[in-house]
Amino acid sequence: MTISLQQTFEPGLPPNDDHPYRSGVWQPQHKEYDAWDMDVIGEIPSDLNGVYLRNTENPLFEPIKRYHPFDGDSMMHSISFENGEARYSNRFVRTDAFLAEQEVRASLWAGISEHPSNAIAEKGWGARTLMKDNASTDVIVHGGVALASFYQCGELYRLDPRTLEDLGKTKWNDFFPTEGVSAHPKVDEHTGELLFFSYFTEAPFMRYGVVSRSGELTTHVDIPLPGPRLPHDMAFTENWSILNDLPLFWSPEALADGYYSNIFDRNLPSRFALIPRHGSTDEIMWFEADPTFVLHWTNAYEDGDWVILDGFFQHNPTARGIARRDESHKGFETLDMNVLQARAHRWKFNTRTGECKEESTSERCAEFPMINGRYAGKRHRYSYNAKCTPGLFAFDGIIKHDLDTGNEELYEFEPGVFVSETVMAPRDGSSAEDDGYLVTFSSDLNNDYSEALVFEASNLSHGPVCQIRLPERIASGTHSTWAASQDL
What we know:
By secondary structure, the protein is mainly beta. It is about 5% helix and about 40% strand. The protein has one domain (about 1-485): 7 Propeller (Methylamine Dehydrogenase, Chain H), CATH 2.130.10. It has three helices and 36 strands. Strands 1-2-6-5-4-36 form a six-stranded antiparallel beta sheet, with no helix packed on it. Strands 3, 31, 32, 33, 34 and 35 form a six-stranded antiparallel beta sheet that branches. Strands 7-8-10-11 form a four-stranded antiparallel beta sheet, with no helix packed on it. A hairpin with a 2-residue loop joins strand 23 and strand 24. The radius of gyration is 21 Å and the shape is globular.
C-alpha cells in the first residue's frame, strides 16, 4: 500500500473518551489520506468502474453541553475503481461551521440534544435556525459533482467525487433556497434532475423544488402543512414526487417556549402529498394512511393508476417502554432501529380514485435501503438493506430483499465488525437488476482496521469477492452513494 498523509487535525476531545458515539465503531478520525496500490484479498472486478462515497461524523471538539452522533463534522470517504484498480481518499468537508470552529478551536453551535440558546454563534442553519450545518448526513452525485448535505436543512457542499477537492457551496445560479435543502435530495439518473424539499417553522412549513442536470432551479413551490413537521426523506416516480406529513413533529407548546421536543400523535394519520414533478401547489393530491414515522424510503414507481411506495414503517417511533442500558445512552434510544421496530412496508396510492392501501412486506427490523440507481422512480424488485445492531446506531449485516417473492438473503458479519450503508453498483454493460456489485466499507474492532468490501449482488451469501485494506480504521456514519464512471 502506498499512503500519502495529507493533513492531521488536532482534536480537542478527552483522552480515553468513552462516549458511546465517540468510541468503538464511532471513534472519530482526524487524519486525511490518499492511498493507492492497496493490499487486496481476492481480485477487484474489472467491470466495476466508478466511485463509492461515504459520509461520516467525526467530531473535533467537546460539545457545549451534550454530544449527539449527528453533531460530528463531515468526513467524506471516496474509493474509485478503474480497470481493476482502486484509489482511496478521505477529507473533512470544509463547511462554514467547520472553518469557524477551527479558528477558535472550540464548538460554537449547540447540538441536537441541546437547547438552541446554548449556541455561542449568533447565526446558524437548519429548521431550528441555530444549528451547525456539518454536512455529515448524505452524499449524492449530481452533474458529476458530489454534494454533501445536512440532516435538517442546510447548504449543499460540492466536492470532486474522486479527489474530494473542495468545490465550494451549491449556488443554482444564485437561486439556492434561503431555508436550505433537506437531508435527502434525490437524483433521477434518467433525466439528470435533482429533486428536493425544505422545511421550516413558519407557514407554509415546506417547499419542494426541481433542479436541472445543468444546475438550474426550474421548479420551486409551496407544500402547505398544518404546522411545523420533521420530514427526513422523499421519493419520486417518472411523473410524481412524493412528500410526507407524518404525525411525529415538534410539540407546539415546546416551540412556544423556544424548545424543540418531539411528540408522536397516534390520533393523526400519516399524510402523503403526490405532486406532478413540475407541478404547482394546487395540483397536490393528498392521501392518508396509518400513523407512523418513516426515516427512509426505498423507491417508488407507477403501475397504471397506482403509485407504489416502499419504505420502512416505524411501529414504535418514540421508543416507548424501552429501558436504556445506562446513563451514557440516555436520549439515544431512538437511534436503534430495532427499538423503533422499523420494517419494510408498501403503500399504494390510486391517483384516479384517491384510494390508499398499505401492507407490511417484511417482519425483519432493518433500515437504510439502497437499490440499483437505474431503477429509481421505476419498478424495482430488489432492495439492499442494513441489518441494524441492537442497542447501537450501527450496521452489522446486509440484507437483500426480493420484493416480488418476499425472500430475504442475509450476510451477517462476525461480532465486532460493522459496515456502512451498502450501495449497488451495476456491472458495466449489465441489463439485469441485480447484475452488479454491492460495495461497502467495514470497520473491524477486533483487528483495528477498515476494508472496502465488494460482493456479487446476485450472490450475497457467498461473501466478498474482494477486500481492500484502507489506511486507517474509519468511523461509522450515515449515508453512501455510487456513481458510475460515465456519470462523473
